[in-house]
């Protein structure tokens, strides 16, 4: 897995580099600003980019803009965005690009090595990895929507885990239920949210994330 890291905090950038190389992952370049990041993307054609939301010169949305531009230049690029805290507008900007090969994590997850590596591998494999805290805040914002009020408490739990990008087997393990029970809950969620179920997990997650994004915009 070829990786480029864009992070202006030198200690965090070097720490992630050491961590990933210790896991036999190939960090081909690092950058501390958007220009250096995009130059690295063009030069190395990595499979995955890890990008900080806030970067120089203004430390507002330069990281998001650079991630979107990197995906424009290299559409198959997987992007894992890191943020110091939940920034819902930035999260929904990213989701608008589609959820495939996309992750959005709080920086504190980097210290939880297994969670961080799991998210990175999931995104590199074509899936989605959305921080549970981001999902929780999106769902809190969308709860007034009448379709979400149709869901049972258990269905809300399943939906939140789906939105993180987890598959049925992992959801079953997290909730201590069978795969069949999860499948039943998911069929019910799609029916109650007026979303047609799909066989492919990435389409299912995309549908759920788009629903959450559209519902958030209405509030």
UniProtKB/TrEMBL annotation:
The keyword Transcription regulation applies. Residues 144-211 form the HTH luxR-type domain. Residues 2-122 form the Response regulatory domain. The modification 4-aspartylphosphate is found at residue 52. Keywords: DNA-binding, Phosphoprotein, Transcription, Transcription regulation. It comes from the Bacteria. It holds the Pfam family Response_reg. This is Response regulator. It comes from Amycolatopsis samaneae.
